[in-house]
Amino acid sequence: MAAPTVASASATPTGAPTPSAGTPTTIPTSAFVELPTELRKSPRRGTDVAEALPKLCGNEFGTGGRQVTASAAMTNTYQKAGAPASNVPQGMIHQVIFTFDGEGASAYLTRLRTAVQACPSYEQSGNPITVKSEPLPGVGDEALLLTRSWKGTMHGESTGGNSSSQIAVARVDNVVTVFDDQGWEGTSGNPTIMDQVVRDGVKTIDTWQG
Asked: How many Å apart are CA 176 and CA 97, to the nearest integer?
């Protein structure tokens, strides 16, 4: 199994504060969620952080290096439970984990909420996409759920319906994790699986932090 990309404290920008004692400077594979066997289409894999972070109107999910002590990403490819092995995957969920020094994690969520409010819609490959933001209760210390919606297409032709996928961001103490659900080849994501993955992911981070 490929290990996730790991950023050490020495990779933080020049002038960034030295991490406080106890602040993680590496992120182990065990900090990431793993799908239940029945939902796992293929083994999770390490992913570049920049590629795993979602993009809306701009770089809303980037940190700008502010008080980040480590970052890493992994991707889970999922299927519907009981789906035949010959079926294509239903989608992929990218997970990024950031660790922050000081109040950096709370500040990240504050900046993100402001950035998302300024981006109610955007275009991707010429297709308009709307963005809805709402709190995600009962997940970590604070969490945010974004739903992206667009006109459904198949092979470049309109299906006459709508498609959607979700992004979830949760803070657990000084850790922030970002989940981005992408349906297979532009189809809708699976909100039920996404919700399970987000909640399991936050519990996994809790366990890692001890």
From this structure: 6
When the pLDDT of each residue in the chain is averaged and rounded to a whole number, the result is 87
Residues 6+ apart with CB under 8 A from 35: 44, 76, 78, 197
Q: Of 23, 33, 14, 11, which is closest to residue 196 (Cα–Cα)?
A: 33
CA distances from 119 to 88, 149, 167, 209 (A): 32, 13, 14, 33
Cβ neighbors of 203 (< 8 A, separation 6 or more) are none
Beta bridge partner(s), residue 181: 93
In one letter, which amino acid is 89? P
| 8 A C-beta contact, residue 53 and residue 62 | yes
**pTM for the whole thing?**
0.87
Phi, psi of 73 (to 5 degrees): -145, 150
Q: Which two three-digit tokens encode residue 171?
A: 């803070």
Cα–Cα distance for residue pair 129/107, rounded to 1 Å: 27
